[in-house]
Design brief:
This protein has one helix spanning 2-23, and strands at 40-41, 48-50, 56-63, 67-74, 78-85, 90-92, 96-97, 103-108, 114-122. The chain has 123 residues and is α+β, with helices and mostly antiparallel strands.
Length: 123
């Protein structure tokens, strides 16, 4: 009986993680406010980006070609990532706010490779 319960919770955990992944990537609205270019280009060797007001610090920790991963410490305001893909599409992360611990951030380009990451901040 306990094995069945454990399998059920494992399945629920996988579904929850998949759902959070979908929630973490949304379409970029057509009316997005213009921000200074704070992007990282694939293969550029650049690993950090800081806001003009130094309200956040991000580090890219992994590059899988179609997916990147990193973490961002947000000191004030809010931040989201925009991942641009070689096939012309892009994915936008949710707005995340200031807190003492770093946030895990990532971007996906299913069926393509990522070409640029932009960090958009407000507040």
């Amino acid at each position: 009986m306990s094995g069945c319960i454990a399998r059920t919770f494992t399945k629920l955990g996988v579904v929850a993680v998949a759902a959070l992944g979908v929630l973490g990537t949304t379409a970029l609205p057509a009316t997005a406010e213009p921000v200074p270019d704070q992007s990282i280009t694939a293969g550029s060797g650049v690993t950090t980006a800081d806001a003009i007001a130094a309200s956040y610090h991000c580090v890219i920790t992994a590059n899988y070609g179609w997916r990147w991963e990193g973490n961002c410490t947000i000191y004030s305001g809010e931040l989201r990532t925009i991942t641009y893909c070689a096939n012309g599409t892009s994915t936008t992360g949710l707005w995340i706010g200031a807190r003492p611990q770093p946030w895990a951030v990532w971007g996906n380009c299913p069926g393509s490779s990522w070409t640029r990451i932009a960090f958009q901040s407000r507040g």
